[in-house]
Amino acid sequence: MASRNYVYADGGATTKPDQNSITASVAESGKESHSVLAQTGLDKAALSTAIALYRQKNDSASRAELEKIIAAEPTNAEAFFYLGKIERREKHFEAAVADQEKATQLGPDRADYFIALGDAYGKLASESRSFTLAQQSCAALEHAVGLAPRSEEARAALIDFCRKAPSIVGGGMAKAYQQANELRAIDPPAGTRLLITLYADEGRDVEAFQAAAETLKDHPDDYGLLFAVGRLAATDGTRLDEGETDLRKCLNLPAASGFPDHGAAHFRLGEILEKEGKTAEARSQFQAAMADSPSNEEAKRALARLEQNSVAAPSR
Description:
The structure is a single chain. By secondary structure, the protein is mainly alpha-helical. The protein folds into 2 domains: about 1-145, Alpha Horseshoe (Serine Threonine Protein Phosphatase 5, Tetratricopeptide repeat); about 185-315, Serine Threonine Protein Phosphatase 5, Tetratricopeptide repeat (Alpha Horseshoe), CATH 1.25.40. About 70% of the residues lie in helices and about 0% in strands. It is built from 16 helices and no strands. It has helices spanning about 20-30, 45-55, 60-70, 75-90, 95-105, 110-130, 130-145, 150-165, 175-185, 190-200, 205-220, 225-235, 240-250, 260-275, 280-290, 295-310.
């Protein structure tokens, strides 16, 4: 995954972000508000419709529903959260920040709201070249981790920030590795998955495979970790046998929620088999990936590539 560095133009302050500032602000606002789970009179059907429309990427219809909900119930944190996600997807980053700030004020115990707020701050910081907004992004993401220290999503978001931003605003690779190792101490498979990503990004594939092997000794059936090893082998082109074994094991396990599905496992396995020169088996895996996920463009291109190579190959 390519990283992007933040560039700042709004001052040379060297102080680290005040990690308590967001907490204090939320606590003050929280005196007059409550989370969506505690709200009364919530039109759950309308909110479910709005969320479904958002997931279908029908942003205009979702926005209309969310704005109706907010007009009728201005303390609906979830509505602000999804409205902010729409603004972020449409690259209206100032509006996204405003909506996510409101969501966190209304739902101060929700790590996912702070993840979204941190992301919105980060996008706006990059767009406006703002040092201060980058600090706010860091503080929001750190607060999310504080709320949910076992959350792989929260740790991953903070790690992504640290990979992109310099230490002067709270980022840096040392901190990224620290976050991964802290999670690994709590949840070994989750922390190891994050370590694999960090190692792979820095070309430290030997260490990535070693970390995975250590964790798989005690968690041999962790779907997400097995897939991570297979993907690394497929993209790196090394330890292909190991990657093939782990991906085949994935396909014999239920696809875990929140992780790439069996279609993705078939695709990565196809990449490995192609690298091993097993063209017929690779084609079969790419076809299986298409059967599971007909919109898998990578699998479509892989099949087209195999077909082209087959036509171009000289007859014997």
